[in-house]
């Protein structure tokens, strides 16, 4: 079975490497990871931002895959974690690690794993995904 290659508008991700098998953006130590994450959030219907190798990112991704959505996963290193956490909320939390993983749907922050699960259990996740254009059914 072949996987679809995500649409990128012909742009090459300069500071990130895209793994085509899992659609994961892994950010290098370049300092501009926050700008690339912001660009991914604006261009993709569903984006998951989390630490590299985090098990909660895997859980979020599996939940979204179960709903029929193939999210873009942005994995940040420990060095870029504070910059990525500043994207999550207007106010930086005391512990930047507590803000990740973060799920963006349609360019808007849904929340972390706990908020995503609450929205899913309430039956509100599918309508949000449809409105963002991530689901067609």
TrEMBL record:
Pfam families: Glutaredoxin. The keyword DNA-binding does not apply. The keyword Cytoplasm applies. One of its GO terms (cellular component) is cytoplasm. Signal peptide: none annotated. Its main location: cytoplasm. Keywords: Cytoplasm, Redox-active center. InterPro entries: GlrX-like_pln_2, Glutaredoxin, Thioredoxin-like_sf. It is found in: Cytoplasm. Residues 46-110 form the Glutaredoxin domain. Belongs to the glutaredoxin family. CC-type subfamily. NCBIfam families: GlrX-like_plant. This is Monothiol glutaredoxin-S3-like. It comes from Canna indica (Indian-shot). The lineage of its organism: Eukaryota, Viridiplantae, Streptophyta, Embryophyta, Tracheophyta.
């Amino acid at each position: 079975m072949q996987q679809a290659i995500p649409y990128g508008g012909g742009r090459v991700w300069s500071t990130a490497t895209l793994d085509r098998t899992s659609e994961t953006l892994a950010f290098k130590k370049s300092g501009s990871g926050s700008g690339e994450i912001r660009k991914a959030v604006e261009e993709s219907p569903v984006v998951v931002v989390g630490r590299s190798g985090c098990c909660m990112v895997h859980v979020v991704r599996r939940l979204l895959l179960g709903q029929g959505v193939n999210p873009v996963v942005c994995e940040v290193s420990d060095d870029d974690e504070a910059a990525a956490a500043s994207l999550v909320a207007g106010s930086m939390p005391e512990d930047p690690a507590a803000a990740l993983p973060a799920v963006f749907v349609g360019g808007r922050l849904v929340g972390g794993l706990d908020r995503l699960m609450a929205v899913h259990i309430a039956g509100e996740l599918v309508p949000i995904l449809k409105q963002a254009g991530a689901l067609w059914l």
